[in-house]
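Bench notes, afternoon.
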Amino acid sequence: MKVTTQKDSEKVIWDQMKSPSSTHISQNRALPKLMVFLILFVSLTYLVYTFKLISSPPNCHEDNIFTTLHLSSAKPNFKYQSNPSIHNQPTHLAAPEEEATHRRTELEHIVFGIAASAKLWEQRKKYIKLWYNPIRMRGIVWLDNPVETHSDSDLPQVRISGNTTKFKYKNRQGHRSAIRISRIVTETLRQGMEDVRWFVMGDDDTVFVADNLIRVLRKYDHTQMYYIGSLSESHLQNIYFSYGMAYGGGGFAISYPLAKALARMQDKCIQRYPGLYGSDDRMQACMAELGVPLTKELGFHQYDVYGNLFGLLAAHPVTPLVSLHHLDVVEPIFPNMTQVQALQQLMIPMKLDSAGLMQQSICYDKAKKWTVSVSWGFAVQIFRGVLSPREIEMPSRTFLNWYRRADYTAYAFNTRPVSRNLCQKPFVFYFSKAGLNSLGNQTVTQYDRHQVPHPECRWKMADPAELDRVEVHKKPDPHLWDRSPRRNCCRILESKRRSMVVDVGICREGEISQI
């Protein structure tokens, strides 16, 4: 029999501790304690971090970044949630002023500032009456002296410009009234009118096509700084003044934020430019200091020309007609009428389809080998022979430049000479009347031949003198300028006895202007 000593007993215990089963039991007893310590550690860490967030101010920059990322990727719409408590939360509803900001720009959002003088008021106010609608529009006529206005309820309200004697004026060729006129936008802003997005400047001899003005301004964000207008037709005028200046007679638009910025600095700005000539170059000098360039829109027309506007209007650029200026300088746009009568005549097609007014279409009568150019609502021209669209879309020089010279290099755009070939003198048919065919939703405009002598032509081809009128069918297209710019196409439908019928509209797939 073997006797177990104390040393042997200690060895047995040591061997049992080293065995796998003993190790597993020992680990099982140790794990619960470890888990308890881990849970306690995590809980204490979470509590400390939470107290730190509550007691410390948030980092706005980081919060904005993550909020933006969350909103840009979020898809749920709260109105589809089933929890009624969520429906009652106003957090994601737009504020009234935010909704108003995102509404489409309308005439009610524009305020016109009209520069006028008491001396010419009786003569010039007739132009304003042609286009201004006191029900739909807001505006102020700024005069240098008081005038009689009791019977003029269909005109804008009249104000007298502020005193400008404190401002220096050193240009010997100009007149210091330019300072008064340059401050019209600022003075109009200070009237405190509500819900204004744009201030539109014009002269008392400027006629606006208000619906087209709206179409142009809708392209731009009124919450940003914009200075919108166009240049002079005269290359020399643009050199003397600036190719970056909006000419005030043709009109220009200034967004509300830019008007506010201008008002804060304009008086000091004006003092820095006593040698400038007019109001519009003072305005552009202040725009340069503000760092806002001119955004050019070709539909604003200064018309620094003399004579007959026919060539310019019959080949109007592919852009909405917004304004006409210098109406006392140029000839009436329709023959055998006063200027006011001629403009009243233009209002007839304007009310039917303002977007398409003066827009040119070019097509060909293949059988007769005629080139036909339609300036919708104004005139139709028929040329013997085939002239390319590249030629016809250039204005013919029926006018003289601002310095009364027949110098084709004096214009800021391409022109073409009046043809020397007697056979290619155009036959012109002027707009005479219009109607609306409600069944086909079509406008029908009639153009009567201008009865002037034509030189004898020996070409063996059909003579346009056999026609007395041209009838043009066109569907009104209020969304014409919501698409990319493109001339409408025209098609010769038929030539009746003494008349031609033409259809004008959106170009069909693959349709181009060719013989």
